[in-house]
Amino acid sequence: MLASARSVDAPALEYYLAASARSPIALRLVLGRFLRILRREAGIEAEEAGKAIRASEAKISRMERGLVTCKPRDVTDLLVFYGVTDAELMATFAEVVQVSRQSGWWHAYDGVLPEWFGKLIGLQEAASIIRACELELVPGLLQTAGYAGAVVRQGYPFARVQEIRSRVALRMERQEVLVGADAPRLWAVLDEAVLRRPVGGEQVMRQQLYHLAQVARLDNITVQIAPLDDPACAAAGFPITHLRFELPALPDIVYLEQLRDADYLDEREEAEHCRRVLDHLAQAALSPQDSLDLLQRQLVHGQEA
């Protein structure tokens, strides 16, 4: 197939370079997807591609899924093997590789940031819609510093003071993604138990509830409460974060966090199933206005107590 007839061209790559400027991780996923497209268009199996760069089929899979940073030489060799001859396309791919290998701002917190969680931050930077269901705690993107500190101290009871401060600072800096003209829309469904669990004590919790009531009024943030007395609101059973992107090359991604690890689901059927679960919860939960009213009642109740 002639390079000019390929479905991957320099203008498309330049578009993704501009759109993913804040998120090297998102650009890494785009790079992997385009490499897979070119390989398939060339009729080459992953095993053959691996041999072409002195590597395994597994490495090609990791590159195409965006699980590793790509080496410039590997990408150049693969493009040649796939029959890419267009100089402009090769040069643009080289620029994409360079940017995708850069460190995100969150790498300044490498001492307290697991690699599997850094990927989530990078994806949130590129997302257009972030949907979340939380059963126990306020989502990190909506936590106050006091609440975040209490959560960190509970999760890391033997951590030193500086480590706790770094973890809280990271959480606060993450929230800047919700500010600005290009901010994603955040849609969070919180179990009512989240409001009633006194994390950090009465004063910290009161400040957190007040903050939730304030951000729930912002145009790009929707907060819904799933009442405890409605069995339909127990559909999820575990926290879910669903990420959607305006970038056509990026599929929906679901983030499922465990205690010391996380799963990222990008298969269409898995992501679609989780989206339907979130749709069900949003329909069963209180409306945004009724949820705001509940938050305000909870604040008044706490003040009276």
Topology overview:
Elements: H1 10-19, H2 24-41, H3 46-52, H4 57-64, H5 72-81, H6 87-100, H7 115-126, E1 129-134, H8 145-155, H9 161-174, E2 185-191, H10 192-196, H11 202-215, E3 221-226, E4 240-244, E5 253-257, E6 262-265, H12 268-284, H13 288-304
Helix pairs in contact: 1-6, 2-6, 3-4, 5-6, 8-9, 11-13
What's the number of extended β-strand segments? Answer: 6
Share of helical residues: 40-55%
Task: Give the biggest sheet.
Answer: 6 strands, mixed
Number of domains in the coordinates?
Answer: 2
DSSP helix count? 13
CATH architecture of the largest domain: 2-Layer Sandwich
Mean pLDDT score: 91
In the CATH hierarchy, what is the superfamily of the largest domain?
Endonuclease Chain A
Q: What fold name goes in the CATH topology slot of the largest domain?
A: Endonuclease, Chain A
* Backbone CA Rg: 22 Å
User: What form results from the Cα inertia axes?
Assistant: elongated
What does this structure look like?
The protein has 305 residues and is an alpha/beta fold. It contains 13 helices and 6 strands. The chain folds into 2 domains: 6-100, lambda repressor-like DNA-binding domains (434 Repressor (Amino-terminal Domain)); 107-142 and 174-304, Endonuclease, Chain A (2-Layer Sandwich), CATH 3.30.870. The protein has helices spanning 10-19, 24-41, 46-52, 57-64, 72-81, 87-100, 115-126, 145-155, 161-174, 192-196, 202-215, 268-284, 288-304; strands at 129-134, 185-191, 221-226, 240-244, 253-257, 262-265. The N and C termini lie far apart (73 Å). Residues 1-5 have low confidence and may be disordered. It has a 6-stranded mixed β-sheet with strand order 3-2-1-4-5-6, with helices on both faces. 51% of the residues lie in helices and 11% in strands.
